[in-house]
């Protein structure tokens, strides 16, 4: 399974390094079989002596190698640190920073051309959720416009917008229904994200179509994140 942490706008270079080293040590000591991903802010990126199953990724990038784009980060800056995995389409970029589906697709194509692993995020806001499952799925499928779903390094993270950072978690029935419908058309691994924490990760990972989690706030404590990895190691599906 894939256990991913999104640091968002948190951690400095020093604190991120200490966190990543602690997770590396835990994985090495426990011989965990989980695929672990840590998405650090740009200023904390570095070359880490990573264990084989852990990759440090980028939360964002501008779809250029380099150029005159003040304030943006191109792939040249990511390649300096050997970054091989990126987040695209997170709801905070779609809804807070107003990134369009067209821009998400441009980023996707750019990362795909460089054979990066892509965790592509989709999710619906509360006003869509209350309209029922058909409205939810219609909204989610629109977020695949311009996206090559056959790409072999694609991972999809379903994160209902109303459950991110709110303390609300979709019911297991809701998660299973959405992931099962996605699985009907998609071959990529499916993650769930949205107020995942130590207390509920085990039940979420037991959902049949769930291949892992993308965790925000609850993963920022290294002991909690290690516990999530340990729990995943003990989930049998």
From TrEMBL:
EC number from the UniProt entry: 5.3.1.1
Q: Which Pfam families match?
A: TIM
User: Which pathway does the UniProt entry assign to this protein?
Assistant: Carbohydrate biosynthesis; gluconeogenesis; Carbohydrate degradation; glycolysis; D-glyceraldehyde 3-phosphate from glycerone phosphate: step 1/1
Superkingdom to which the source organism belongs: Bacteria
Entries under SUPFAM superfamilies matching the protein: Triosephosphate isomerase (TIM) (SSF51351)
User: Can you say where in the cell this protein is located?
Assistant: Cytoplasm
Report which reactions are catalysed by this protein.
D-glyceraldehyde 3-phosphate = dihydroxyacetone phosphate
Q: Which GO terms describe its molecular function?
A: triose-phosphate isomerase activity
Q: Which GO terms describe its biological process?
A: gluconeogenesis; glyceraldehyde-3-phosphate biosynthetic process; glycerol catabolic process; glycolytic process
Principal localisation: cytoplasm
Q: Which UniProt keywords apply?
A: Cytoplasm, Gluconeogenesis, Glycolysis, Isomerase
Q: What class of enzyme is it?
A: isomerase
An annotated GO cellular component = cytosol
Which residues belong to the signal peptide in this entry? none
The entry describes its oligomerization and partners as: Homodimer.
UniProt lists the family membership as follows:
Belongs to the triosephosphate isomerase family.
Protein's name in the database? Triosephosphate isomerase
What organism does the UniProt record list as the source?
Sulfurospirillum multivorans (strain DM 12446 / JCM 15788 / NBRC 109480)
Lineage of producing organism? Bacteria, Pseudomonadati, Campylobacterota, Epsilonproteobacteria, Campylobacterales
- Give the encoding gene's name: tpiA
